[in-house]
Each structure stands twice: as structure tokens, then as C-alpha cells.
Write a structure and sequence with these properties.
heterodimer, A: about 350 residues, alpha/beta, two-stranded antiparallel ribbon, B: about 325 residues, Rossmann fold, five-stranded mixed sheet, 12 helices
Amino acid sequence: MAIAREAEPVGSLSEVRDAGLDREDLLGIYRNMILTRGVEERGHILYKQGKIPGSFYTGRGNEAAAVGVATAMAPDDVGTPLHRDMGVHIVRGVEPWRILAQFMARQDGPTHGRDGNVHLADARLGLIAMVSHLPAMLPVATGAALAFRIREERRVAVGWFGEGASARGDAHEAMTFAGTRKLPIVYVCDNNQWAYSTPTHLEYATEHVADRAQSYGFEGVVVDGTDVLAVYREATRAIEKARNGDGPTLLECVTLRMEGHAVHDDAFYVPKVMFERWAENDPIERFRTWLRTNADMTDEEESHISESVKKVLNDALERAEASPQPDPSTLLEGVYATPEDLDTPHHK
Amino acid sequence: MAEITYLQAISDALRTEMRRDERVFVIGEDVGVYGGAFKVTQNFQEEFGPWRVIDAPLAETAIVGGATGAAIMGMRPVAEMQFADFVSCAWDHLVTIAAKQRWRAGTPVPIVLRLPSGGGFSGGPFHSQNPESSFAHIPGLKCVCPATPADAKGLLISAIEDPNPVLFFEHKHLYRRIKGEVPEERYTTPIGKARTHREGTDISVITWGAMVYTAEEAAQQLDNDGVSVEIVDLRTVMPWDKAAVLESVRKTSKVIVLHEDTRTGGFGGEIAATIAEEAFEDLDAPVRRIAAPDTPVPFAPLLEKAFIPQVEDVVKGLRELAEY
């Protein structure tokens, strides 16, 4: 028996307008989803060309969840997106060329080659860089919410995690604390149904991850994570509730992992029928169909979006490949911060 | 200048910074209404309110991870572990996030972790440890271990000002036992500068924390033998004052590195190795380490006495070195 509220899908354009989105917003969301996938597809090609050291992870299938939540955030809100949440970086405005430079460990990536993949963040855009230990960013996001509460600012923190990481104590401690203090935070679980090779029934015994929210004293909501508009609507509700002082929400986006855990993983353990079902529910295709049916997206508009994204990516690739390798003589710099280093948009 | 205890000096520093800088707040278990297990934050909640003196759930990960997030958002959290031993529950957040975020992502994490540490009163295996060496090994963390009330105040203020994660090891056995003159006004004691606790010419003892007093008692006994012992109180283990250590070693040419933590992998090994590398020609005897044996901290008073380096252990070591 589900305890969490199971959110309805989004139907008509008028419902979407009630959620605060006009037609231009909708096309913008669609573009962000395409750009999100495009950045990762370019990354995949670079990996196959041997231009990306280490491994490479994508969030294919998670675009609606990531873009939907990020679109609901206000400019001053803060988030800790993870490795399936490229869409959050795209929506917040991280430039694609810098992301590709990060993939290739170049000097102009946000971490200047010191960390890889989507372990990046732009402080100017209200993001905090993730670590590999999951869900270690949840207590950090909770601390950001604590700072907002102490200073009585109307800002909200958004902390992401996966259904696999929901097993770890960090999630429990963070949500316990946020519940007791009614902190302005939204916990977003991207439930892509596989923790590497482990299926959900070996990860948790409740029907939904969001069912746990009740035990922390706040609301749990389950939403179809391939329905970008439903994700947006539920994220908006949760974020504005937090902003108004009514405490946290655990929002579970049931999504897909259309590829392996990382590029090296062929996901042989995922039943073939599941991949077929996922292909039918591709969030980008789903939203494209919705836009054509409900918002009269024209062929011209569609091709304009895909052409403009292609141009952004081509330019990004060129600029990223021109970025130099990091200089080994800088290795020792910045292990310890100086007082001047605190002059960041976050710390102000 | 007033004479106050080591514990009062810590409270004084914290209160001074909280009055001066509204970004500073305290978070920990029982730090608010109860005033902290050792009463360091007694009456703080009355003065600063429940949102600056925050009683957290029993959740060290949430406390340290939360402090990290708040620090990144511009606050200056001072988090208390009820005992230093419990920092193991927050290891991941210190080591994985706080220590690396500046180097990796350009985001400093200015947090202070107050860690009541050390043994000597039958606290047993889980209320007596000195885990500073484990953290000194992690690039990005600073480890501070004051021995005197004046240093406790000045170093805590420096720690709160510091833009990095600082672990502040306050030795429980010094809390109420050690008194000293502490200026009433605000001042800082630099992190990374040792203090010559006692001048001497024949043997150097390099130490920190409560062992400064063990070394002092031993040195007094050696006075009767006509052996002059210098004691260098490191004050901070990371960064540590290599120059001061080497200078003392060059003066005396014999050295004991003394710490309350266990021997193998203890920070004394790093100091001894550095002396061997950089002052070998100045030595008249092998560098000697005195530390706790490689066991957990025992509970029974007799066992604990056998574990923690005692004055007689240091006296024996000093005599052997004097005769070398």
C-alpha cells in the first residue's frame, strides 16, 4: 500500500497554464531536454574516440526529471544535482562547452581537470558540486537549507539522490534533521529502477521510496519522471511549500536508465522487455508528442530547436577541444583555501 | 588578566566570536538547553537563541554534512562532536566533501569541528581517543590541539576565522584541571606556529595537547639529574611547525617525540621521519618515539595507566637518551 501521494499525469495545455508555464516556456523546456541529451551524446562520442579519460556516465532517460525540477527552482535557490541530472546544469545555465571540457579533463572545465564527469558545479548558478559517495550531498543540501532558515531568507535547497542511495544512512539523517526543523528543502529521488545492477526489490521493501517521507514527518509524492510537466508541477508545489515555511517534501520521480550504469556496462542484467518499455516512454519523445498534440508545435519550430541545439553543441565541441590540458605545476595549488577564496557567490 | 580554566577559555572564544559575527552558529548534540555534555555552551542558547545554538538529532553525519552546506552558503558553523570518538560517524563528510571541495570545485568549506578528545578518566575505548593523526593525513583538513587556556582561546578564534575545515581537538583531561591567564579581549593565535613550553639545551621533547604536562613533570625530574629538557608544544598538528622542531633539534641534538595517540601511523612518525631527513647530521642519538601502544583505549584504571604515556615513561626515555 502506497503511503505517498501518487501524482496525476499532466493532460491539457490549460492545466499547464495553471502551473505557470506559457507556450514559450514549454518550447524552452523541450530545448533544454534536447540539449541535455545532446551534451551527453557528444560526451559518449568523445569517450569512444578516446578523448575522455576514466569512465563516463549519462542520464539518458532522466531528462524530464532533471529539467522539470530545475525549471521549478528560483534563481536564488540552491541545488546538489547528481550524475543523472545533467539537465539541472543545463537549465541553470552552465555552458555546454565547459561541460565538454570537464568531460575531457581540460583546463576550462569547471574543476580544471581536477575531477571528471558531471562532478561539476557553477557556484554562480546556485549549484554545489557532487561527490561520488551517494547520497552524501543530501546532508550538505540540508545544511544549505539550514543557513536559509537561520537567516530567514525565502530560499529553498534541492537535494538529489537515487533509489539505490536511499539505503544509506545519510538520507535518513538528513531527512530526520530537516523534518524536525521544518527546513526549506525538497529531496528529489530519481528512481531509475537500477542501482548499477541491483533492482528495486533488493534496494527497498516499501512500495515507493517516497513512502518513507511520512516517517520523517513530511509529505512524500511519487510522480512519473518521464512526464516533464507533471514533474514540474509537483516540484513547483514542493519548492513553494518549502519557501513558505511549510517544510520539506520527498519527491520521487520514477524514471528510466536507458543505458548501463556507465559506458563500460552493457546492462545485460536488465530484461530486454524493460528496455523496450523504456524506449516507448522516452521522456523526450513523450514531450515532443505532447507538444505537437497539445501545443501545436510546428515542424518549423521543431527543426529550429534541433538545429540551434546542434549549433550550440558543434561550437561547444570546438571550443572545448581547444581548451588546454591542465598544467601539472598547478597541482599543489588550492589544497587549502585563502580568505580571498571565500569571495564566491555562495559564501556571500 | 583573569585566570580561567581551559574549558572556560573555549567558551569565552566561542562567545566572543558569536557576539562579533552573526554568521557563527553552534550545532551539536545537547549543546542548547543542556549547554553541551561538558558545558562549554552553557547559557549560550539564552543569549543567542535556538537558531544559533542548535540542538541536533543524534546524527553526526547530518551535523557535519549540514555544517558543510551551511558554510558553503556563507555561515561559519562550529559543530560539536559530543566526544571526538564519534567523529568516525562523520568521517565521510569531512574527508570526502569538506576536505576536497576547495581543491576540486573551488568552494571553500569554513567549518570548525570541536572534538573533546583524550583519555585519563576511564572513558573506555569509545570516549578517550585522540584521532588527530587520521585527519592530519587528509589533505585539506587542519588539526589544532591546544594545551593551554590562552592557546585554546586564541586558536579557536583562529579556527573560526580560517577559510578551511578545522578540527579543534580539546583535551578533556585539561578542561577543568588546567588554569591559566587568558586576556579578556579578542586575540588570535596563529595556526601552524609552535610554542616553546620550556627552554632547555640537552634534549628536545616534541609534543602537544595533554602530553605537554606529562613532559613538563618529567623534565622537572631530569633537572635533578642535571639534564636540561626543552619542550616544544606543537599546538597544531596540521599544519605543523617544522621549522621550530628542526631548530630545537639542532640546538639539543637529541629528541623524543611524545603523543597520547597510538604509536603506529601516529603523527609522531611523520615528525621523526622529517627530523631524520632534514636534521640527520645534527643528531647525536636516534630519534625516539613515546606513544600509546597499538591497542584500543582500555577502561580499567590500571590498564589505562599502562596505555597512556606516563611521567615515568618519559623520564625513562629522557634518561636513556641523556646517557646515549
